[in-house]
Amino acid sequence: MACLSFLNNVANGTALRRVLLDCFTKSNLLLKNPIMKYLFPGFLLILFSQLASAESIHMANGIKIGEVNSSSAIIWTRLTKTADRNIDGKPFPKEKSRKDTLPKKNYDLEKMEGAALGVAGEVRVRYWPDGKKDAAQNTAWTAVDPEKDFTHQFQLRELNPGAVYRVVVDGRAQEKSEATTAVAGSFKTAPGREEIAPIRFAVVTCQDYPRRDDKLNGHKIYKEMLEEKLNFFVHAGDILYYDKPGPYAKTPALARFKWNRLYALPYLRNFHNNTSSYFIKDDHETVKNDSWPGASYGEITWEKGLAMFREQVPMGEKTYRTVRWGKDLQIWLVEGRDFRSANTDPDGPNKTIWGAEQKQWFYDTVKASDATFKVLISPTAIVGPDRDNKNDNHANAGFKHEGDEIRAFLGKQENMYVICGDRHWQYVSVDPVSGTREYSVGAASDAHAGGYSMQQKNDMHEYLKIKGGYFTVEVARNENVPSITLTHHGVDGSAYHEDVFKVKSGK
Q1: Superfamily of domain 194-237+319-507
Q2: How far is Cα of residue 128 from the mean position of the Cα atoms in its chain?
């Protein structure tokens, strides 16, 4: 009768269920005891439903490690029904309408190609400095939030500066059960602000699922960047496109579907499991192209778009921030959507993209910085040149007043560079008035590159290429002389263009 003592505790964990299975399969109690014979069918139903529940907890999207500084990091997690996306699902049919009207058909998303639907359960994080597993710490088990696409974000604090950390995220079906899925990863914290250390990071922009260059694995750049052994990574916006087909994501369910199928691709998932990231949003993953506050796209209101971005990436209190990476590098990541005026407003001193508060914060923190090199990473162009028909960034006539102001400020800073996203072509441009130097990252794949031509190259361009790839920045010292190397790469990792700048010894 020993097995009867377990009947009221079936939900208590995987180990208990193993004991029960062993009890019933390896003993003769069932044949000898009429009570167990009567209860056995119902018991098996409960038991196997528990086992099925446990087996359905997975992490098809891996983890995202973000907002790392010298003492903290955020670990993003999500639980899924399956271990991988639905590779053999149905493709979305071609859609003709780009309008904001809702889709005429409600798809069974679980059956669609790329699906990685969420599931309820609990997660925790285990982490330790590399080589010191005996010093591992655990967060508390916490339920993922069904209202936030079954995600949860953990803030890790009191980390050591300049250290490699190992991390394992565990998932389980319910309280008090054992973990049934886990994802292992790693990241590096930033060195202290006075520490001299080599730093290498990458920046990308403009990617989507249909234009990935490896249909099975995703964007090739993520495989190449993983081999670069980066200190960190920045996505400069247009992470995906709600307002592009396959499908047009005019509902929160379709928008989340797009996030989940993209980050279930193996190259992207493996990269983010082992690289800390900073994410910047732009228009296409907020609501739609060239949008400003108050815009909507189908059922995705402006407020819902902002909320979904925060649920899908690790993010701190504000979406504009600055991070110090040792003595020689400080980066600024700016917000280009939340505070902007309407693109259609007349230009002048009151028209803005950054907003007064963010702009003053930027000026103040740049002036206060004693980092050797300063890098501004913007979701949109500040120098350009851009296409004549655009009116959405500081390089356009519609925001010339604020653009002139920001370029004049940047031109007065020593050893400061601008990296921008949004444009689907690579370039290096120098503003003829202020001398501000800007590097456009270009699209994440060759199939996504375009919108400009080599015939449009002009005196502002020091480099122009209509190709996809990624961008790296390396800060180092040789005989105590600090240098910064800025490189455009192709999708295969090859270097297309490189600039190297040095400053005087003793900086």
Answers
A1: Alkaline phosphatase D (PhoD) (3.60.21.70)
A2: 23
